[in-house]
Amino acid sequence: MLAILRKEFNSFLNSPVAYVVIGVFLVATGLFVWVIPDSSVLDYGYADLQTLFSMAPWIFLFLIPALTMRTFAEEKKAGTIELLLTRPLTDGQIIGGKYLACLLLALLALVPTLLYYYSVYQLGAPVGNIDSAATVGSYLGLALLAAVFAAIGIFASAITRDQIIAFLVAVVGCFLVYSGFDSLASVFDGAPAYYIGQLGIAAHYRDISKGLIDSRDLTYFLSLVAAMLLGTKLVLQSRNW
Asked: Which N-terminal residues, if any, form the signal peptide (predicted)?
């Protein structure tokens, strides 16, 4: 699995994909956090990074599928998938290596945003007047969100040989899981609205972003990742049916 991880990650770094994805993410979040008047921290008047953590999921919703769309679809189109599957590797190792490479690159895009935290920390009155616990929780929430989106993208790439179709399926899947249940919950009132909302990512992401690390939220995210990766494994195993 580590060999697959190194190969996939190096292939990202040797192509413009990684740099375009990270660049677009940083430019987009930077504009929302510092430049656009309606969302700028400088105009907002409060020392927090709520703008970053509210906009990043929507940017990830498009950028992570752009990373994952080639993982299996390109192998199928080029005819190298059979060669890969006949090597002394299990399906789980192949999936795990490709998945971790995509996730690692997505998390790498978050690292430069720590400068945003440092800047807001210094701009606070007094210095350090920022809710660090909520910020740590929000970064954890973004990492878990990226993990789910990457798993959905890997699954979408496994079910087709066309990268564009894999991208579109992944975007729609990520959107439905992230926002779809919230939209459906708004149709109902009371307990039904609450339970339907809990089926989506947004409710759990909001809880973690408040700095409340609950085992139920962690279990939810990890279960989604496991379900998507298991689905990917079943798709690969279907060649033997």
From this structure: none
